[in-house]
Amino acid sequence: MRTFATRTGVRLPLLGQGTWEMGAADRASEVAALRLGFDLGLVLVDTAEMYAHGGAEEVVGAAIQGRREEVFLVSKVLPGNASRLGTIAAAERSLRRLKTDCIDLYLLHWAGPHPLRATLEAFQQLREQGKIRDYGVSNFDVDEMVAAEESPHGSGVCANQVFYNLGRRGIERRLMPWCIDRGIAIMAYSPLEQGRLRETKSLRRVAARHGVTPAQVALAWTLRVDGVVTLVKAARAEHVRENAAAADIALSADDLAELDAEFPRPQRDVPLDTL
Ligand SMILES: NC(=O)c1ccc[n+]([C@@H]2O[C@H](COP(=O)([O-])OP(=O)(O)OC[C@H]3O[C@@H](n4cnc5c(N)ncnc54)[C@H](OP(=O)(O)O)[C@@H]3O)[C@@H](O)[C@H]2O)c1
Asked: Residue range 14-38: average pLDDT?
């Protein structure tokens, strides 16, 4: 799996597994799906205390048993918990659910009521205690990234997780270059628009040329940028297999031009898309 080296020195695999909506229903098959993904090289797994009120972290905790060393673990603190002491308590609860002693990358889920400097101070303390290795943010637009950069410990922010797919290209104008030029990874969530990405003519044509599915083309498209980590959630084994194989699809200049024509980049700056 290709990786992106952030400014803090961590190497992030460019394709990883999401867990939103896991932890509520069929946990055994979700654990199996995540483990199949690890077998196929999708070793980065993204979760959050928010997902199923901790249920998704429990699923991840079960999936990584006996395999912790293979896996790159990402979780997130809810903004309402992200005071200095609240962040530390939230991380400790997450570690218990994840059944591990360290989270590789810990993110603030979105900007909330607590001052960012308090969250960053907690992140720094958690890092010194060995409870997290790296930290970052999520759903931050450029102005919020600038404010983070100017905060104490802001230079430790190594990732910003945002909504990005063929139909959500606003970040290409400013946020994506701003982050990647500084060695801050963009982590693209909902690359399939939560399974609702339209199977348009261009997606179908490009997919047919490569002998793959439109969903795989959509993943290959976000994977085309070094510095963008693609997070895709799949509970079904056939989806996990397709997604892992998408890492090997190289889109040509003609493929990209055809997709651009149907999914144009915005002509002017637009606010950050969020779910
Ligand atoms: N930071 C944030 O605010 C934020 C927000 C949203 C998401 N995220 C993270 O990003 C991850 C990915 O985003 P997401 O879950 O919102 O949406 P997504 O990955 O775009 O879409 C997931 C949906 O697509 C289906 N799917 C997966 N692979 C497929 C394939 N090869 N062909 C057809 N359908 C396929 C899945 O079905 P099955 O499950 O049935 O296989 C599921 O219904 C999340 O799980 C979460 O970890 C973060």
From this structure: 96
